[in-house]
Queue: 3 jobs
Job 1
Amino acid sequence: MAQNKEYDLIVVGAGMAGCILAARIAERGVNPHNGDKLRIALIEAGPYLERKKNPGYGDPRWRIMVPQIQWEEFANIPHWPWPYGLKMVGGCSLHWGAFAFLPFDIDYKNWVDEMGIDWTKENMKEAVDDIVKGLHVHEDPEEAYSRGNRLFRDAGRALGYQPRGYTVARYNCIYCGYVGGAHGCKYDAKATSLWYIPTFLEHGGELISDAEVQQVVIEKQGAGGVVKGVSYRRNGEDFTAVANNVVVSCGAWGTPVLLGRSGFGPRAVLGPRTIVENDNVGRNLDGDTNFDVPVFFDDPIKEAGRGTSGGIYWFVDDPKFSDGTGRLRIAEDLTKITYPHVAALSEFAPAFGKAHMDFMRKAITRYGSISIGLTKPPTHVKGWVDLETGGHNYPGDDYIDQRLRVAQGIAIEVAKKMGCKVSLKFPKTFQGGYPSAGLHTNGTCRAGSDRKNSVIDQNFEAHDVKGLFIADASSYPRAVSSNSGLATATMGAFAARRIAKNHFSRGMA
Amino acid sequence: MKKGTRRRFLRQTGLGILATSGAVEPVALAQPEPAAATPLQIVAALADTLIPTEEPQYPGYRRLESFNISTFVWNQLRVVDRVTPQNLASFNEAPKATLGKPFLELDPAGRARHLDQLFSETDGASVPHKVLRQARERIFAVFYRNFPYHTIDRDEKGTPIATDKLHQIINPKKSNIVTGWDIAGYRGPLSWEEEEERRARFKKIHWHEGDAG
């Protein structure tokens, strides 16, 4: 075991929340006893691909490589494994469409009402403003819209819905059309928490990349525990880093797995490995699900071999619920590039032969889909993470199935209004059950005022382990109303302020 | 295609060694030998029916046989899709019952008629039907993912290596190879000139020179 280096704070995981949190604490926090700069380590399992930021132009290496990497490719990259995605400094924050939704009013209200925490819109405003500025959150300009965007918007309005444009987190986007079809961006336009790393380093932070944390070192103390540091492996060598404060930011799946490995979790699962017990570690998994309803137009809706990147969506609430339960998002995917193999395998394509080839000559400019999602599953349905494997489980509910069918019906109605062909298939995976809350997952170490139903308090500190903090997608107690990237970023910014104020301000004990 | 690209492709995939050593079986589209029907022959014949080649209007799958596309497809079917030689043999033998000959012995019209029959199966539960579905998906996926330019060079860790040889950044028109991307009119990544046009357009709308963050 290598040397025991000491820190005031260790942040585990340099993903969406971790980078932001580390940067803001490094910037704002001080040693409470002497006012010195904090000694902070940010430890990340993946590499730090440092490069000159040049939004709109990109880095020579990434300019060539990134747009060709579709999600299938990640399965073949051993150290960037799917479903965890990009295991690297900046994490999964630079992915897909860079669609950027801040928490909606109903999300704050749910967190406060259900868990008794003070995460109001007002209290989180400063953190939200930080994210809006830092990640450049804005709405796509009308000029970037394609014919498909406009058709969808007009159809929605005609049917009495209230379509609106996506907010996005991009910087100098040239609307190449790859934004929704590949993880990264060769023009460095997709927002990423990587942008916060220079701030972290400028304020004396130490970034330790390519280092897989094995355990958070927790010692038993009374009925609970106390943090002593972390152990990690780098280049085949084992290290220990000593600290009285550790923030875990490994995501909704990764965080409970690390905590379980560290002896913190349900005794029923961990058995004799349990050091400190809390039944909620890895439980209360929430999230949303989506599926696409393919459509095909007679005339082109996007540029040949290109796309744009705008997006239109609207919500459809279930009037039976005032907490957003059953909220649907109806969106379009009529703008980004269509890869030829996707069109070739679509149900609109003739089965084979010259007819198929004739279809392919015009398919990629006419093919698209309407994306539907249930963003607010019922509150009584929660899943869990397997603390050994990181696999996630979701019990399902007939109501979820019913709402997805309602959403499909709306999509078909919209498609008919647009005058295009539409798929009438309902995914087999959803029929008679709901196997997975696979997207935008959260809640597996959720915050609450009562340790009986939560893992951390409203200040992100574990109820049962002194000096242990959790700030990432696992922290927020209920799914947000749409894509969760910015909610996770907000957790990083908000937790940084709370932790700096409560633990790293001059004069604090 | 730049000089040496095909050689490099063959070296990277290992197909060149197989080809020169005789390990790759010859693909005989026009000379079916039912007694010795091999998986490669069946894959090649099926793919030729799915994506026919009839120059010059239909530059199809057969054009890419010189790049060992059937070897690649068969390896994917075998390893990824778990299709066995017995499954393929079952597919080949299936038309005997209705058309009196195995698939490889049918003329193009007969092969198309047999595929129509299989696709029209209501339950889709037979082995030949399943093989057809799997093979169709794999063949279209390989062809329309721009074979033989579909591979990405990787380092020893498996990380993609950025080079200027990826996909159709090189101009396929120079090599007279027509790929699935060409048929679909898919142009691949933007050229520098196209990027500059877009930058000029969006600089008038929404742009901030300098670093982010």
Job 2
Amino acid sequence: MRRADSDGADVTVASNIETETPRKKKPPLQHGYIVIHDQRCKGCDLCIPACPVDIIVKAGADSVNLMGWVPVEVTDMTRCIACNLCATVCPDQAIDVFRFAKPIRHGEES
Amino acid sequence: MSSTYQPPVGIETTRVGGTPGTMTGIGNTWCPGCGHGTLASLIADAIDQLGLQDRTILCPGVGCGTSIISQIDVNAVMCPHGRASDAATGLSRMLPDRTVVQYSGDGDACGIGLAGLMHACARGENFLVFIYNNNVYGMTGGQMGPTTTPEVPTTTFQSGRDETVMGHPIDIIKTLEAYPGVAYSARVSLASGVLVTKAAKIVKKAFQIHLDGIRGIKIVDVLGNCNVNWKGGGVSFTPQTANEFIESTIMKYFDVGEVRVPEAYRKPGKK
Amino acid sequence: MSRNDFRPPIGRPTMGAHAMGIGAVMADCSYFAGYPITPQTELLEYVSQALPEHGGVFQQLGDELSSVMAVFGAAVAGRRAMTATVGPGLNLMVEGLANAAGAEVPLVLGALTRAHVGVSAGLLPAQSDIRMLKGGGNGDYHLPILAPASVTEIARLTVEAFDLADLYTTPVVVAIDGVLANLIETLEPFEVPQRDLPAKTWSLENPRTDGGRRLVSAYRTPELDTLITYKLQDKYRRMAETEVRYEAEMMDDAEFVVVAYGIMARVAREAVRRARAKGVRAGLFRPVSLFPFPEDELGEIAGRVNEILVTEINFGQILPDVRLAANGRCPVRFLGQPAMPIPPAAVEHALETIAAGRSVEPRTFRDVHPTAWWQLESLPEPQRSAMEGIFAMLGGGDDPQRWIDTLLGIRPGTHGAGGKTS
């Protein structure tokens, strides 16, 4: 699910809603989480299309870091699969990836 | 800002990716989206995994890549433009138990330093060479280089390399196929997450071959973007479109993959 | 006196170029890289055998630029390293030398100089690279230059050059002309002073420790580079205080002083003796270090003599240094020619001329015919006049360009952009 345009977050959300049937919504598995060091991020946005579950988006324009760049942020960490692709493509070592020993299924406990 | 996520308590987690421990943590001076940072990360990761931090000596030439000195926490010497192969020759001859790594750009290695590199390959010197091949002289602002492919816009040849005037780009990996002194040669690309993952394996393999005592040059040509300075003729790129351009255009000219692999490291059934 | 088990061939006839190699092996040089060029080849051939026998590495690389940079790499590894070349090769090496000076990396360069501008087919000995050796590359740096005048001194100063390089972390030049390079004379016993050399804490041979990695030449900001340039000037000032070397002979009552180095110092010594026999109170001042130049010492001499005569096998490459040292305290005359040592008779004649109160002119091509002139000078009188007559018949006249055209066998004015067309 690759996207050429970094501003296409809304489009993706819309397509998700389209393909998922609301009645049989399966809770996603969270395999881990990522930490974005937003002061290191230069906002090149390469991680946005690299993310296979599309949870990385550009932060709002008011989130400018000390270097003057607008970093990225995560919309929904519960869908992170800890695939490491975002950290792999990051040229600025701004993302650390952590994997859970056992994936968590959200929505089960509630 | 965004990093407010708190991981659930009581679940065992392991760090699977991120900044390699060998890196200094100093913020780099490369442009947003520049693959130099990615390649530095891959090299640092390989040094980390093989425990080479205390015995690696980095020899960057002159270019944007020189900044790698501030990025990887190993002994290093900055060499003049195009002379990294020669300095690495003297260093590796004097300190044969160290891992000497030349880090060059394509202008540094294939332009001004081509003679030194080819002679080092001919002599079968024992060090590693990483070339960040972005098809352009990035540090000086995007002039055409020896590896510039015809479609890449440059400031000196605005609509791309004019092959009637400037001939054809140099494929350094193919050129060096003729040299028995090259122990390992490969080309990788940093154009997508999948390709970077493959590149990481090849970078590590080059170090491993060196560590296993196989003499000769281990050279990896790394295709990366210069999204800021591919700008001739009014064309402009974002990091993402630049990476797509590598996949769609530059990789047509430069084949990605291993070319020279020592016998013991070949997969069965491959040459 | 040797830093290892090497025994120099004391008492044996030794070539100047070999003596440089002997000095390198004695100084425990670990790495030598070079590219053959006349007359440095004898040195290359010598170290190619001698160095590996004593634990060193010898390599012949693709060109002079590769050689000097490989030597830079070896020096960065904390080992003693050396290269050697001649004028046209030095053109290529200047890049590496400037970088080594800026990066403060110690290495030794043997400069065996020969004549002429650019590519020269003549291979004649001269001192024509001194100006380039003093700096030559970009930026405000200098290279210490040692100019020996005998085979024994070549060996001794080469060992000392390695010490100087380590002491001041800079490239050091041992400059000899082509005559000395191919001169064979007995290697006399010599002693090299032991100096306290600083430990090479900067070298990349030292293991990286936490927070203590070694970086050479990793200056990344204009501010740092500026600081380095200041630091270099401090170093040159310290050198000027402690590393000046010179020899003064027959100076006590001297009124006319010849300043000469290398082979010309030996020629000048003979000329000074002859002039003294004729009643001219002449003396000899031989700068051994061309940088740092013995400026104060020569300045003091300039204050008490009548005139100074500089002789070099070039057109005045230390002449500016002498003029600055004299600083107007006495007239400074110059006698030079592009190639081959000036004959003692010519220096003697110049001394007599200035002693008689007349001015000396630099030698022109009329003094030394552009072809076979060295044979001419040595010919006895009847043959010499006959040969000169033949040259005159060839029709060279007073114009060097006409001589060049005649010798090339082409129509006058068709050779060289600078040729006269009239």
Job 3
Amino acid sequence: MNLLRYLKMRSPWYVRIEVLAGVALLTHLLVVWAIPYVIMAALSMSRPAEERGTGPLFPPMTDHTQRRVVMPSPDLLYALCAFDVRQRALRIQADPKLAGYWSIALYGANSDNFFVLNDRKAAGVPVDLVLIGPDTPEPATVPAGARMVRAPGGRGLLLMRVLVGDYGAERDAVEAARRTLRCTPLS
Amino acid sequence: MTSMTSNPATAERPRWTRVLALYLLAIALGAGSAWLVVRSHLDRGGVSVGVWRTSTLAGSTHADLYTRAVVAVGALLALNREETVYYVATTDSEGRPLRSRCRYRISGPAPDARWWSITAYAEDRFLFDAPARRYSINGRNAPLDAQGRFALESGPTPPANGIPWLPTPGDRGLSFTLRLYNPAPDLVANPASLAAPRIERLGGCE
């Protein structure tokens, strides 16, 4: 309050207007910057009560009742892991064994998609990734064959997508495929 | 008898109240303008081809402050364009805003991608409560003619001609999203090179 008082007493009216405009501009930029972080944090923390736990989240096939993420694709089955690699690395494993499209994408806390691996790039080899934070040292022991990925920030979200043509007919195969996903903190 | 002399402490309070109100107003203006700018840029900017628009920076680590905020609000968890290109249409080919109660014919060459789909969204960016959970038409279930072209119709009731139907019940705002998963390298390099599907309104609106 002392600063405000000083400005009020010492400054002419146009300086006070400039200060107010500066506050408005800074607030504007701060809000624009914060929007993705807030939305991603809300998504990472929103987990249905029946799915509480540290493992991946396996939401039902997307339909019109899904209101968590805008513009959901009705042709994809998803699996999610929220990650925090500030202290410990995260091991990500999956072996979908599907002929169709699937992908594992990693998003930073600011919603940037900083990594994606799909079935073509995996070329039939099971996914085995070790995700570490920007400042965390590499784990002393990395599982043989695992690939190291360094995240640009400590927190974020993993989203696995599995293409589904006809969920009723393909249910067993695609459900089994997405449930091969493991997100395990490394000690 | 009451004194007419005001207490300096109580005289100060209204001035501080006014100053505080001004700063709160500045903060409200800053926050409100940020939200308005982000909302007003949904489905705008980026590259346009026909009536379709795509952001070349959606999901990208090179996105600027505003693009990142717009994508988070309008298309959260988008993949980068090497993996998927998203095109959004909010008007028909004559520039009229799309409405769910109108009937549209969407046609064009099958996009050059490993897999593609066209999905209908209401103005809130969520799926319609569509009969038989038919939310999209994609490369697997859209028949192609001899020239490799697809055609579908959207609207509240099914078409009589047997053409694939994308239901859009009710009277709401409408947009179509064309997704290209693993698009051809030319499209990744130049999303404007898409042979854009046309969106023609058929007759009047129901």
